Amino acid sequence: MSVAEDLETPLVLRSDADGIACLTLNRPKAYNALSLGLMAALQAELDAIASDRAVKVVILEGTGKGFCAGHDLREMRARTDAAFHEQVFAACSKLMMSITELPQPVIAKVHGIATAAGCQIVATADLAVAADDTRFGTPGVNIGLFCSTPMVAVSRAIPRKQVMEMLLTGEMIDADTALRHGLINRAVPEAELDAAVSEMAGKIASKSPLVLKTGKAAFYRQLEMPLAEAYAYTSKVMVENMQARDAAEGIDAFIEKRSPKWTGE
After folding, report:
1. Which end of the chain is more exposed for a tag (fewer CB within 10 A), N or C?
2. What mean pLDDT value characterizes the chain?
């Protein structure tokens, strides 16, 4: 798909219901390749959602035959200067960091293929559910472009030997393998994908938004800490969490055997 075609239609579609925002990559003819335009549109949506108290969960999905085929190679070859390439990879890195730093949990809803930066999105998302015929890969080595930036997320999601095999051979893996490696949470028949993701998102959306925000931020921060430091940090997080209205409400509701009423405070 050309840049001109990109400008004729929304590159990211958004729909909201019951505290769940669904963001859909919308370049189906290009397997939702991450053009600069698409990344900018997705970044804008994530930035808006970050401060939207009505949104408790985000679902990322793609239109057409595949989730995301990675970067737009036609766009990358149309501009060969290093400055443009720096712009592309900086935009992509910012996008991945935004997914991780977003207060709301992000679920990748994957079908067809998720390759290179598309696989990176799956690995970056907090959770991922895929149709059981989905294929995943970091095939850059096949075209002379090692998947160095996708490697950052994928190597943090699956074991070292498995990710090195993906990176060095460029071969695709199926959904069952991705599940065994820990790249995705579930693999379901494609006909059940919508229901499986909706069920997962609904369960998460029923929780306190304050607790979701607190827990997600603490999870990623403590991962990079030494063990003793991680315990000291998370102990402080627990103390702060205990002072929240939602913690008091949740504990009281548990003791009183009733459903909690969250305020997000």
Report:
1. C
2. 95
Backbone angles phi, psi at 107, to 5 degrees: -110, 125
Spell 118-146 as b/e; 16+ CB within 10 A means b.
bbbbbbbbbbbbbbbebbbbbbbeeeeee
Whole-model pTM over 0.90? yes
**Domain match, 25 and 114 both:** yes
What would the pLDDT profile of 39-86 be if each residue is shown by its tens digit? Answer: 999 999 999 999 999 999 999 999 999 999 999 999 999 988 999 999
Q: What is the CATH number of the domain that holds 227?
A: 1.10.12.10
Distance between CA 61 and CA 14 in Å, rounded? 10
Q: How many residues does the chain have?
A: 265
Instruction: Write out the H or E segment, with its range, that includes residue 197.
Output: helix 193-205
Enumerate residues 6+ apart whose C-beta is below 8 A from 219.
none
Query: Among 133, 105, 25, 3, which residue's Cα sits nearest to residue 70?
Result: 25
